Amino acid sequence: MITLELLDQKVGIDAGELVSYQVDGHEYIHQKGSPGWRNSDTEMFPIIGPTSKAEFQVQTPKDIAIQDQHGLLREMDYELVSQTGTEVVFKKKYEARTQVKNSKYPEKSNKEYLFWTYDFLFQKQFLLTESGLEITFIVSGERDSPFMLGYHPAFKLYSADPVIVAGKKNIGLDEVLAVGSRAMEVPNCEDILLKDGERQLQIKTKDFGNFMLWTEVRNMVCIEPITFYPYTVEQRNLHEGFRYLDNKAQTFKVALMP
Q: pTM for this one?
């Protein structure tokens, strides 16, 4: 476990996963073991969304890749790059067509191994500042590499009627629950405010462009910045949501601001 501390803020990171963000003793992050989800955060890369109805195949410019729901990055382990008292950097490096063991096999998938058709380097950085916690993702690889990126944090809820404010729209928890496993789309949005009783948390992003909201319980909600909402297309057409790398790495940011 890695701990970052600044003023009244304390962050816990376990193998690259954000497992705690406390401000003045108040915990904002969903805790493992609580009802709702077995994780506290993860990433969706290089695809977002389910692939079972497409026989776990995703078309890329080079060839067909085998991907389970939300990609293969989450099946890989982070490597620690650097660490200070307020900042820590992790990375995952992948070589094209390397087979990665699928944790969903055989209970939820018939694909024992997954692979992607491009090399990539994925970095995740945590920086604790006076205004909050900044999480930065840096994606690099060969020019024209296709990808989608989603960040999937889960936030602990305390009140019976939390409200998610997206622009001029107020979204209640019942609305998110009603959408179910597909997750609610919040398009063309880079900034969301979670109001939970007397507390609130601003989730401010850069270069994702959209959010989706998901929960199946009342004690947590996932507020997920995404580059593409996958349910706008059929699963066999997920490639329509790709972005492509150019000559430089692409950087995406999420700020959690109490």
A: 0.96
